[in-house]
Q: What sequence folds into this?
C-alpha cells in the first residue's frame, strides 16, 4: 500500500471534488483526449476534458493546440470504427501525410497492417467551440505550472491567482513546495494569498492579507480593495483594518515605483533631447549658424537606418523610380539581420555628415555673418529636403523594425527599464564624452575652438577657417544623423520626421545657453525630467508639455542668455 | 440668332435623348470627390479617391446612372478645414455636382456641413465617426459608435475582461466616443474604478473620459507605465482611439514594456489594413480591430471587388497613384457601397434631384457590397455587419467574431446613462 502523501491526498481530493468521473483516471492523458474527441455532446465533452486538470502531460498541450487550429481529424475506417488522428510529416504529391493516432501517438495502420497515408480533405475536422477552448485552457494553465521557463510559470501562476479559484489552491501549494526560482515563488505566494482572500474562514483571510502586505505587489491592489469593501459591508473591523494596512503597503510601493520610474523615464527623455540637440548645439551654439534644416538631418539619419535595414533584409524598393535593390547573399534573418542597427549607426552619421558638408559648401559658407539670411536659407533647404525625401520614399511612413536586443525590458521591483531607453541613455553618455574628447583632446577640436573664439585671429595665425567650418558643420550634422538612427527605434520614420524634433532642439540649446555643450547637457536632462515629472503629477501629457513651455518662457525672462553665458572677446559681438 | 436656334435644337435633342434613354450615352452627370490629396491626411484619403474613381469607371462601363456617365470632379481639401468648405462651395455652386463623396476627419465634415445645408447638397461620408449628428444633407455610410466601439466592448466583456483603459488622440472623435463608451461601460456594470485613463475628482466625478495625446505625440513612456500598473491584476484591456502614426511609438513602447495581446489586448478603432502599411506589424500581432469590413472576408463579392480594384490600379493612368502593396479597408468599401447606394436611389427616384434621391435613400435600399449586405435607414445611416478581427503579421485581420445587421444609431450620448 502506498502511503498517501499530503500532495497525493490533496490532488485526489481535488479530482474528486471536481469530477465524479473516477473511471477516466485509468486512461492515459492521450486516451482521454481521444475519448473527448469522440464524445458528441459538448457538455459531456467538456467534462471529459476536465478530468485532465492537474494530470495532463506535455503531449496534451500540443494536442489541444492542434485541436484549436483545426488540425485534429476523425478517420472512419470501412467497418465504421472512428479513430481520432493528427496528420504529420511531409506531404506527398497527392497532399497525403502520415496519420498519428491521438490515443497512443503511434502511426495509424490500415487493414493490411501498413501505415495509412491520408489527406485532410478526406477526413472530418474535429470541431470546437468557445466553452470547450476555455476548458482546454483550464487544463493547459495547470500544465504550465511545471513549464521549464520561469516566465511561463509566472504567467500560469498569475492566471490562476487572479481567477481566485479555490479549486486550484492545492496545485499551487504543491508547486510552492517544489519551486526553486525566487520570482516564481513570490508569484506563487501572491496567487495563494489571493485565492485565500476568498476563503470563508476569517483567520485564513487575515493571514492572506498579512501575506499580501508583506508582498505588496501592484497586482493585488484591486483584490485587496474588494476584500476591504466586503469586510466593511460585513462589519468585520479587524479584517477591514488588515486590508487597509495591506493597501497602504501596496500604495507605498507604488509611490516608490512611480518615483524611480519617472526618474528613469525623465533621464531617457532627456537623453533623447540631448542626442537630437547636440548637433544643433555645435552648429547653432558654436558656429552661430541657425540651421533650420537640422531636423531633416535627423530624418536623413533615420532613412539611412531604414535603407541599411532593407539591404540586410529582403531588399529595398523605391517606388517613384521603380527601382529595387537586393544584394545577393544578403537576404539575412535572425541575429545577422538584427545586427543591421550596428552598421546603421556609423552609416547614418556619415550620410548626414556628407549632406551637411554639401549644405555648408553650397549655401551656408556664404552666410556666416548673416544669421537671418542663414535662417531663411536653411529653412528653404529643409523644405526642399522634406519634399525630396517624400519623392524618394513616398509620403507614407516607412517601417523600421527594432532589433530584439532593443525591444525587451528589465523589470526591477516593478520599475520597467526598457532596453531601448537604457541604450539611449548609455549612448548619450558616450556621445557627450566623445564630443568632449574631440573638442579638448584633438587638433581639430583645438582649431574649432580657435575659430569659434576669434575667426579673424585664427585666420591670421594660418588656420584654414573654411575647412574648419566645413568639418564642424559636418560633425554637427553627423550627430543629427546618429540621433535619427535612434529615434527610428522609438517612433515614426517619415519625410516630416524632423519637424517633430526641431522645436525641442532649439528649446534645449537656447535654455542651455548658446555655445555651451555643458549647458545643453544640463538643459536637456532638466527639460526631460521636468516633462516626465509633470506628466506623472498632472496625469496629462498635454498639460505637462504646456507647463514645461511656460516654465521655459519664464526662465528665459530671468536669464535671457540661458543657463551658461559664453563670454567672448570678439569685437563683433 | 444662330446660337439661339442651335440652343433650341440642342434642347430638343436633349428632350429626345431623355425619352430615348440609353441611346445618348455620352451625356454625363457631375459627381464631386472631396478628399485631402495633400497634407497629413493624404496618406489615408488618397486611397478613398482611388476607390471612388474605380467605382465610377465600373459603373460607367455598365452604362452609367440613368443612362448618364459619371463625370468625377476631384478637388483637394489639402488637410485644411477652411479649404474644405471653400472646395465644397465650389463643387455645389460652380460645378453643380449631383452628389459629393468625401471627407475623412470629423472636423472636415463639420466644416462643410453648413455649405451642404445651405445649398441643399448631398454628401456621402464614409469614415467611422463619433455620431451625435444627423443632417438631411449628409448620408453617413460611416460606422457609427454602435457599429464599432460598443460591439468591440461587448466582445471584450464576453471574453471576460473587467478593466478598460481608454486612450485616444486629442480631438472630437476620440473624446466623444470615449464619453459614450464610459456611459456604456458603466451601464454594463463595470465600476468607475475599473475604467482607466480618465481624470477623476475626489468624489469620483469624471473630468475626462480617457487619456488624450496630441497628433504626432511620440513619448508614451508614462502612459504605458500607467497601463502596466493598471493591467497588473489581470483582466484588463486597452480601448484605443489613437489616430494616425502616433500608433507606432505607442505600440513600440507597449511591446518594450512587456505588454502583449495575451496580457492586455488593445482594440483599436483607427487602424485598418491601409494604415497597417506604415506600422510595425510584428509588434501588433494579436491586437484587435473592429470594422464593418476586412479584406480577409471570404466571400465571392469581396474576392471580385479586390481583384477588380487591383486590375483597375494596374492599368490606371491617374497621375501619382500608388500601385504597389495596395490593400482594401473599411472606409474604402464604405465609399464603394455609397456610390452604389446613390446610384440605386437615383434610379429609384428617376431623377438626380437631391430631395427625390434623399427620399429614395430613406426608403431602405439595399446593396450587396464586399462586406455583406448594407441597407439604408431613415436616419441617413446604414444597417450593416460588424466584424472583430485579430491582427496578423502580414497586415491582415483574422475575423474572430461578427455581428450581423447592426442598425446605425447616431445619438448615443446620454442613452446609456444610468
A:
Amino acid at each position: 500500500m502506498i502511503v498517501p502523501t499530503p500532495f497525493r491526498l490533496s490532488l485526489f481530493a481535488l479530482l474528486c471534488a471536481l469530477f465524479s468521473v473516477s473511471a477516466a483516471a485509468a486512461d492515459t492523458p492521450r486516451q482521454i483526449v481521444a475519448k473527448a474527441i469522440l464524445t458528441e455532446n459538448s457538455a459531456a465533452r467538456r467534462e471529459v476534458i476536465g478530468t485532465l486538470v492537474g494530470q495532463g502531460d506535455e503531449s496534451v498541450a500540443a494536442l489541444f493546440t492542434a485541436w484549436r487550429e483545426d488540425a485534429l481529424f476523425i478517420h472512419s475506417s470501412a467497418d465504421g470504427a472512428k479513430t481520432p488522428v493528427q496528420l504529420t510529416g511531409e506531404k506527398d504529391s497527392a497532399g497525403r501525410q502520415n496519420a498519428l493516432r491521438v490515443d497512443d501517438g503511434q502511426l495509424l495502420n490500415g487493414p493490411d497492417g501498413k501505415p495509412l497515408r491520408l489527406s485532410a480533405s478526406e477526413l472530418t475536422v474535429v470541431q470546437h467551440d468557445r466553452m470547450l477552448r476555455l476548458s482546454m485552457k483550464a487544463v493547459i494553465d495547470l500544465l504550465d505550472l511545471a513549464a521549464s521557463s520561469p516566465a511561463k510559470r509566472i504567467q500560469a501562476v498569475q492566471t490562476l491567482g487572479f481567477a481566485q479559484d479555490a479549486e486550484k489552491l492545492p496545485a499551487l501549494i504543491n508547486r510552492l513546495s517544489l519551486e526553486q526560482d525566487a520570482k516564481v515563488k513570490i508569484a506563487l505566494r501572491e496567487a495563494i494569498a489571493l485565492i485565500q482572500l476568498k476563503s470563508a474562514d476569517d483567520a485564513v483571510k487575515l493571514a492572506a492579507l498579512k501575506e499580501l502586505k508583506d508582498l505588496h505587489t501592484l497586482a493585488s491592489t484591486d483584490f485587496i480593495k474588494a476584500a476591504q469593501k466586503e469586510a466593511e459591508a460585513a462589519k468585520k473591523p479587524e479584517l477591514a483594518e488588515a486590508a487597509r494596512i495591506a493597501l497602504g503597503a501596496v500604495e507605498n510601493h507604488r509611490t516608490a515605483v512611480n518615483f524611480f520610474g519617472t526618474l528613469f523615464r525623465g533621464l531617457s527623455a532627456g537623453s533623447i533631447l540631448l542626442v537630437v540637440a547636440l548637433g544643433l548645439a555645435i552648429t547653432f551654439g558654436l558656429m552661430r549658424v541657425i540651421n533650420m534644416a537640422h531636423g531633416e538631418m535627423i530624418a536623413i539619419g533615420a532613412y539611412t537606418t531604414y535603407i541599411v535595414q532593407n539591404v540586410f533584409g529582403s531588399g529595398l524598393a523605391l517606388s517613384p523610380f521603380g527601382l529595387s535593390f537586393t544584394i545577393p547573399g544578403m537576404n539575412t534573418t535572425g541575429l545577422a539581420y538584427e545586427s543591421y542597427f550596428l552598421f546603421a549607426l556609423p552609416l547614418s552619421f556619415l550620410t548626414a555628415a556628407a549632406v551637411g558638408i554639401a549644405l555648408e559648401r553650397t549655401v551656408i559658407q556664404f552666410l556666416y555673418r548673416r544669421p537671418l539670411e542663414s535662417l531663411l536659407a536653411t529653412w528653404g533647404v529643409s523644405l526642399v529636403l522634406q519634399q525630396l525625401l517624400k519623392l524618394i520614399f513616398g509620403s507614407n511612413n516607412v517601417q523600421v523594425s527594432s532589433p530584439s536586443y532593443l525591444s525587451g525590458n528589465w523589470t526591477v521591483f516593478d520599475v520597467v527599464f526598457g532596453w531601448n531607453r537604457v541604450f539611449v541613455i548609455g549612448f548619450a553618455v558616450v556621445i557627450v564624452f566623445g564630443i568632449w574628447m574631440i573638442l579638448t583632446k584633438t587638433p581639430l577640436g583645438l582649431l574649432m575652438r580657435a575659430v569659434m573664439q576669434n575667426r579673424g585671429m585664427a585666420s591670421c595665425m594660418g588656420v584654414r577657417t573654411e575647412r574648419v567650418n566645413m568639418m564642424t558643420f559636418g560633425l554637427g550634422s553627423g550627430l543629427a544623423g546618429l540621433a535619427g538612427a535612434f529615434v527610428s527605434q522609438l517612433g515614426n520614420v517619415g519625410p516630416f520626421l524632423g519637424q517633430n524634433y526641431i522645436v525641442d532642439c532649439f528649446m534645449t540649446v537656447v535654455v542651455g545657453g548658446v555655445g555651451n555643450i555643458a549647458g545643453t547637457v544640463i538643459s536637456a536632462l532638466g527639460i526631460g525630467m521636468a516633462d516626465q515629472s509633470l506628466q506623472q503629477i498632472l496625469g496629462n501629457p498635454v498639460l505637462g508639455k504646456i507647463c514645461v513651455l511656460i516654465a521655459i518662457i519664464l526662465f528665459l525672462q530671468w536669464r535671457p542668455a540661458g543657463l551658461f553665458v559664453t563670454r567672448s572677446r570678439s569685437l563683433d559681438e | 440668332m444662330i446660337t439661339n436656334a442651335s440652343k433650341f435644337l440642342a434642347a430638343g435633342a436633349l428632350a429626345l435623348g431623355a425619352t430615348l434613354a440609353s441611346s445618348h450615352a455620352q451625356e454625363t452627370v457631375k459627381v464631386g470627390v472631396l478628399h485631402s490629396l495633400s497634407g497629413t491626411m493624404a496618406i489615408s484619403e488618397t486611397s478613398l479617391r482611388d476607390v471612388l474613381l474605380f467605382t465610377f469607371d465600373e459603373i460607367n462601363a455598365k452604362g452609367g446612372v440613368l443612362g448618364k456617365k459619371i463625370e468625377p470632379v476631384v478637388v483637394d481639401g489639402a488637410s485644411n478645414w477652411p479649404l474644405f468648405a471653400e472646395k465644397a462651395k465650389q463643387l455645389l455652386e460652380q460645378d453643380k455636382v449631383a452628389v459629393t463623396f468625401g471627407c475623412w476627419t470629423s472636423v472636415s465634415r463639420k466644416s462643410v456641413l453648413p455649405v451642404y445645408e445651405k445649398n441643399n447638397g448631398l454628401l456621402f461620408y464614409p469614415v467611422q465617426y463619433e455620431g451625435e449628428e444627423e443632417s438631411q444633407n449628409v448620408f453617413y455610410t460611416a460606422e457609427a459608435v454602435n457599429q464599432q466601439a460598443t460591439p468591440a466592448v461587448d466582445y471584450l466583456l464576453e471574453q471576460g475582461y473587467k478593466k478598460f483603459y481608454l486612450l485616444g488622440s486629442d480631438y472630437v472623435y476620440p473624446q466623444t466616443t470615449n464619453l459614450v463608451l464610459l456611459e456604456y461601460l458603466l451601464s454594463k456594470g463595470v465600476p468607475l474604478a475599473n475604467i482607466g485613463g480618465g481624470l477623476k475628482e475626489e468624489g469620483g466625478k469624471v473630468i475626462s473620459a480617457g487619456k488624450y495625446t496630441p497628433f504626432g505625440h511620440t513619448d508614451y513612456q508614462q502612459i504605458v507605465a500607467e497601463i502596466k500598473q493598471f493591467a497588473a491584476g489581470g483582466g484588463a484591456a486597452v480601448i484605443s482611439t489613437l489616430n494616425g502614426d502616433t500608433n507606432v511609438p505607442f505600440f513600440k513602447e507597449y511591446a518594450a514594456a512587456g505588454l502583449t495581446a495575451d496580457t492586455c489586448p488593445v482594440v483599436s478603432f483607427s487602424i485598418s489594413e491601409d494604415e497597417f502599411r506604415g506600422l510595425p506589424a510584428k509588434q501588433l500581432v494579436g491586437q484587435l480591430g473592429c470594422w464593418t469590413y476586412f479584406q480577409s472576408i471570404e466571400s465571392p463579392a469581396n474576392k471580385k471587388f479586390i481583384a477588380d480594384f487591383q486590375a483597375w490600379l494596374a492599368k490606371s493612368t491617374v497621375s501619382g497613384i500608388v500601385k504597389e502593396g495596395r490593400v482594401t479597408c473599411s472606409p474604402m468599401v464604405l465609399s464603394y457601397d455609397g456610390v452604389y447606394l446613390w446610384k440605386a436611389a437615383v434610379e429609384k427616384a428617376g431623377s438626380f434631384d437631391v430631395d427625390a434621391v434623399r427620399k429614395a435613400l430613406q426608403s431602405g435600399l439595399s446593396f450587396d457590397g464586399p462586406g455583406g449586405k448594407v441597407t439604408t435607414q431613415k436616419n441617413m445611416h446604414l444597417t450593416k455587419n460588424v466584424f472583430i478581427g485579430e491582427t496578423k503579421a502580414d497586415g491582415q485581420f483574422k475575423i474572430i467574431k461578427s455581428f450581423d445587421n447592426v442598425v446605425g444609431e447616431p445619438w448615443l450620448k446620454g442613452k446609456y446613462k444610468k
Observations:
- Chain B has a mean pLDDT of 87.
- Chain B is about 40% helix and 20% strand.
- Chain B touches chain A through 45 residues (CB under 8 Å).
